[in-house]
Amino acid sequence: MALIGAAAVVYGVPSASAGEAAAGETAPVAEVRSSGATAADDHPAKSSADPVLSGKRRITIVRVGSFESGLSLLDGGRLTEVDDDRGRQVFVPTPLGSGEYLIKAYYGGGTGKPVCWQAHNPGDSQPLFVRGAACRADDPAQRFVVAAVPAGGPREYLISNRWAYLRDSARSGLILEELGDAPPVSSFRFNDAGPAPRRR
């Protein structure tokens, strides 16, 4: 009993029984482990566990801080923000492994054959942007990384392709830009819109 009492003093729990003392001994270990975790450590777990990233849910995407605008992949054009029903505004992030996703784009309700997001370099010193293309999981330009924002809101994510992050530009709209040591300036909210269309 003297040993149990000593353990109770060390771990700060009452020593009513040996069972309670043993329970008290395990708590500080769990606290140390959790306090040693970082936001980067739990990003993959948070992202992969979210149903909207399972490939089985369709979503809409809104840039955090935008007003009444959602992302849309315009026909024959690029990814932009709209406040009407133009283009493909329903998306299905389909996991490819290692935190990468093929982002399929559909018309409202998830109808028609999808096209996929593709990073595009227009040249002439113009910024990279996202356009639509036939889906190809082996194309690096279509493999987007989706990562939870540290201390962000529910289903708030950063989107990037080969270190170029999707962000809003006052001059060029939605672009992909390598940020170097600067933090990403745009994050995006994924809103669950129901079951994904049947695989095509």
UniProtKB/TrEMBL annotation:
Keywords: Signal
Domain of life of the organism encoding this protein: Bacteria
Residues of the signal peptide: 1-18
Entry protein name: RICIN domain-containing protein
Provenance organism: Micromonospora carbonacea
Lineage: Bacteria, Bacillati, Actinomycetota, Actinomycetes, Micromonosporales
